[in-house]
Amino acid sequence: MTAIGLSPPVALLNAPNAITAVRTATSVGLAVAALTHRSVHLLVAAYLIYWIGDILDGLTARALGQETRNGAVFDIVADRACTSACAAALVVLRPDTALPIGVFLVQFMVVDQLLSLMFLRWPLLSPNYFARVDRRIYLWNWSPPAKALNTAAVVILAICTPTAVAVTFAVGVAVVKVVSLVCAARLPVGLPHTQP
Predict the structure, then answer these.
(1) Is the pLDDT of residue 195 over 50?
(2) In angstroms, how far is CA 120 from the centroid of its own chain?
(3) What mean pLDDT, rounded, does the chain reach?
(4) Contact 157, 95 (CB under 8 A)
(5) Could you tell me the CA-to-CA distances from 76 to 21, 37, 89, 150, 184 in Å, in that order?
(6) At what angle do helices 69-93 and 98-106 cross, to 10 degrees?
(7) Taking the alpha carbons of 158, 73, 62, 123 in that order, is the dihedral positive or negative?
(8) 8 A C-beta contact, residue 140 and residue 176
(9) DSSP tag of 142
(10) What is the C-alpha radius of gyration for the chain, rounded to an integer number of angstroms?
């Protein structure tokens, strides 16, 4: 904090943030094109760029020592932009996915966003370090298997399985997110077990 109580300027331009910006613009652009042209190929490309870019920006941040809290928030917001655009295109192309994708969107856009931003209550760089606050919540939400199950699995199940299976899975993920959010909100604020 500075003498007048304001935070110092935040560096927004770094390699991981550039990757986040490019993958978001490209994924959203391709999803809109998929919607406009009713193209499954463009939608697949939009999802792949979103998912690969999301992995790449995190790996780059850690490899270059450029992890920042503002970068983590940018990533969380960018994920919602990509997800909403891709989900809209998916529902238009495959109307039978509307119910599981609708459940997923409410969970991801509202509950998971609140949960993901909970890391800001502690001196953590991102939700990836939440195990220092609560290992159980971390394992349910931000461990690599949880990340895959919480996002890509819902989309894949919506496309490849009967609606009832996909809805059941999406509701199950939503329940885990709500329970995690309630548990995280009840945790005392303070220093985590180890510093980030």
Answers:
(1) no
(2) 15
(3) 91
(4) no
(5) 12, 28, 20, 14, 17
(6) 160
(7) negative
(8) yes
(9) T
(10) 18
Q: Contact, 132 vs 192, CB < 8 A? A: yes
Angle between helices 40-63 and 69-93 (to 10 degrees): 170
Cα(12)–Cα(35) distance, integer angstroms: 31
User: Mind listing the pLDDT tens digit for each residue in 116-159?
Assistant: 999 999 999 999 999 999 999 999 999 989 988 888 899 999 99
Which tokens go with 66? 């450029």
Helix extents (H) in 38-134 = 40-63, 69-93, 98-106, 113-117
Residue 58, pLDDT above cutoff 60 = yes
Phi-psi region of 40 (alpha: psi -120 to 50; beta: other; left: phi over 0): alpha
Cα 71 from Cα 18, distance rounded (Å): 10
Report yes or no: 72 and 54 within 8 Å, Cβ to Cβ.
no
Is the model's pLDDT at 187 over the cut of 50?
yes
Which residues does 160 contact at the CB level (< 8 Å), separation at least 6? none
pLDDT of residue 196: 43
Q: What are phi and psi of 7, to 5 degrees?
A: -70, 150
- Cα 17 from chain centroid? 15
Q: Which residue has the higher pLDDT, 52 or 11?
A: 52
Q: Are 14 and 65 in contact (CB under 8 A)?
A: no
**DSSP letter, residue 95:** G
Tokens describing residue 156: 């894949």
